[in-house]
Specification:
Helix content: 40-55%
CATH class: Alpha Beta
Mean pLDDT: 95
Structural class: alpha/beta
Low-confidence stretches: none
CATH topology: Rossmann fold
Radius of gyration: 17 Å
Largest sheet: 6 strands, mixed
Amino acid sequence: MQKLLSYMRAAVQKYDMIQSGDVIAVGVSAGKDSLALLCALARLKSFYPQKFELKAITIDMRFNDKDGDFSEIRTLCDKLGIEYTVVPTNLYRLIFEARQESNPCSLCSKMRRGALNKAAAATGCNKVALGHHLDDVAETFIMNLFNGGSLDCFMPVTYLDRSEITVIRPMIFARESDCARVARNENLPVRKSACPADGNTEREEVKAFLSSLEKKYGNVRIKILEAMQKKEINGY
């Protein structure tokens, strides 16, 4: 946790992610990354000089038209003293049944973020924190390079005019392995995703590709982030 907090505080300070009076909604799934983010931000809140409030929001995809069971996450939020909201949606039916998307991840991500931002605004939040880490940064950069021929990635901080929400990504200096260790050490209620596309996505292919490169070239993901910072790509 201390290592993750160190990375998080460095990112928060470098990109001025948190100001006094912020009310931050953490987008929480049952995955290790978002749960690690929630716990680390709760810990950061206890000593960070800029005072802020936290809330947690889960967008329920309702896989197979069934309400998700998020009782363990609710118990965790109660323990942390964080208000928790579950937003039921029909996204599973829309994406996988009505539209039968062959490559659903991009549309699903966009629609989940839209629902999350709307819920955050409705609960009085001015910011949304997402659980993207350094591995996500590098993988997204490579996916955009290979697919669109662009040097592009999500930004550390993004202001959304339509929803008047600022999106922050406090874990972009941390590795996925750091999140996994926190999830294990803190005994967080991580559950495998029920998404039919889980484990069979383009991102998984890029993850494997970068891992193969690291066997020869070392910390490729870190080098990609450093190159983005040197060229100030998308606010890095």
